[in-house]
Structures are given as structure tokens and as C-alpha cells.
Write a structure and sequence with these properties.
The chain has 13 helices and no strands. It is mainly α. About 10% of the residues have low confidence. Pfam families: Abi_C, AbiJ_NTD5.
């Protein structure tokens, strides 16, 4: 939940994401969307300084946001529109902690599929689904991080040099340390082979996540929307990644009991 008590910090955070993402057409659409044509189009330097890359653009953005911010609800609307929460989590965790209350995280999923005391994945799940439409590259990067966290949590204390292992190696190790099918299941060996085969296929999706993330995801100097990656591309690998993580963590937790 966005905290609006410190309006100046909210305006500052919005100025950062707007500078990173907005072009002139974004400003125009926003002006009419929130009924702030005078504040935005009436500012004599805002669009000009943006188009010409002038050093006073930051100052102009803040001036416009301060004027809009006389109605706090409009700042909240802008924050939701640009996915301020997901952007700050990935790029400015210090500001994220100031402005967002983690006690009431938002989820696309009905429940957290990776509920575990071993690490906190609520923020990761929220970041993934909050960023999926607006920033598919961020969703890919966060999915990869989530799966790595799940795998390394399961392998904690069971293997060494985990940080040096690639994703396929981590998956193979996890399979060797988990009993995928209980012994009392009929034809347990055959069932185990089937599950392993399925996990290996899911592993190929994980490799795909890695390749997509390396090409388009966060952490490689990529600029948002430069890749042309669409939300439906990210949704494919994100949903597969959550499915893989859900299964492995449920097996892991069941065997910890």
C-alpha cells in the first residue's frame, strides 16, 4: 500500500520514474487523463526541456508534480499507472521502504504459492505480477531471481558453491535431494521417472527464462520497452516459473515436516 504522508518524497520518487519512462506523448495523455491540462501543457518549459534534453527538465517535472499534487489522489493514480511500486523495488529499494507498506501486499494470485518461513517471497511475487503488463523485462528478471532463491533454499546445507552453479545444474541437484514421489505410491519408481521427465521439461522453460532475461531482462543495462518484448511473452515464462517453484517448494516443505 502506498503511503502518502510524505508528499515530497512521493513527488521525488515519481519524478525519477517519469524521467526514466515518459516521452512527450505520455505527458499529453496524462494531462487529459487526470484533467491537468493547464498544469502540464501550460508549463512553458516541461515538454521543451524534455525534447531538447535540457538540464532543467528534472526541476520542471517536480514543479508540475507539485502542482498536480495539490490533489493527492492524482499522485496516487500516477503511481499506479506507472507501476511505481515495482519500479522502486527493483531500482530504489530505499525509497520503496519509505513509500510502501509491505503489511498489505497486493497479489494477482489468490494465495502466495511459495509460502515458506525460509525466505520472504511475497515481495517477489508481488513485483512479478505488478510489473507484468507495464514492464515485462522486469517480470522476467524477477522470475529468474525467485526460482534461484527457491532452488538455493532447498539446497541450503546440502551442496557447496551454489552461487557458481547454473540454473540447469541447480535443478538437477534439487531433484537428487528431494523424494519426488512417496515410496508408498504404486509403481513409485515409474512415477518418479515421469515427474523427473516433467521437471526436466520445465527446466527447459527455466533455461528459456534465463536466455530471455539475459537478452531483455533487468540487470543488463537494458532500457525499458527497447526490446519489444510483450507482456504475453513474459506471462508464458512467469507462469511456468511460478508453477515450477510452487511444486518444488511444496515437496520440500512436505518433507520437512
Amino acid at each position: 500500500m502506498l503511503k502518502t504522508e510524505n508528499k515530497n518524497r512521493l513527488i521525488y520518487a515519481l519524478s525519477l520514474i517519469i524521467e526514466a519512462k515518459f516521452d512527450a506523448s505520455d505527458w499529453t495523455k496524462l494531462a487529459y487523463e487526470i484533467d491537468e491540462v493547464d498544469a502540464i501543457e501550460g508549463h512553458n518549459r516541461l515538454i521543451r526541456s524534455l525534447n531538447w534534453g535540457d538540464p532543467d527538465y528534472t526541476q520542471n517535472v517536480i514543479e508540475v508534480l507539485k502542482r498536480i499534487g495539490r490533489n493527492t489522489e492524482k499522485l496516487v493514480f500516477i503511481a499506479e499507472k506507472v507501476n511505481l511500486e515495482g519500479w522502486l523495488q527493483a531500482r530504489r529499494p530505499d525509497l520503496y521502504k519509505e513509500l510502501f507498506d509491505d503489511s498489505e501486499p497486493s497479489h494477482i494470485l489468490d494465495e502466495n504459492p511459495l509460502d515458506t518461513d525460509s525466505f520472504d517471497v511475497t515481495k517477489q511475487i508481488s513485483r512479478i505480477y505488478n510489473s507484468l503488463e507495464e514492464d515485462p523485462e522486469l517480470a522476467l528478471g524477477t522470475t529468474k531471481e525467485m526460482i534461484e532463491t527457491v532452488l538455493k533454499t532447498i539446497l541450503s546445507g546440502k551442496a557447496e558453491n551454489l552461487d557458481k552453479l547454473e540454473m540447469p545444474e541447480l535443478i538437477k541437484l534439487v531433484q537428487s535431494h528431494l523424494k519426488l514421489i512417496p515410496d508408498d505410491v504404486a509403481q513409485a519408481n515409474k512415477a518418479t521417472d515421469t515427474v523427473k521427465r516433467t521437471l526436466n521439461n520445465l527446466g527447459q522453460i527455466v533455461i528459456g527464462i534465463t536466455e530471455l532475461r539475459n537478452a531483455y531482462g533487468t540487470g543488463h543495462g537494458k532500457v525499458k520497452n527497447e526490446s519489444g518484448l510483450k507482456p504475453y511473452h513474459a506471462r508464458l515464462v512467469v507462469n511456468a516459473g511460478v508453477t515450477l517453484a510452487r511444486f518444488l517448494m511444496e515437496v520440500y516443505q512436505d518433507q520437512k515436516k
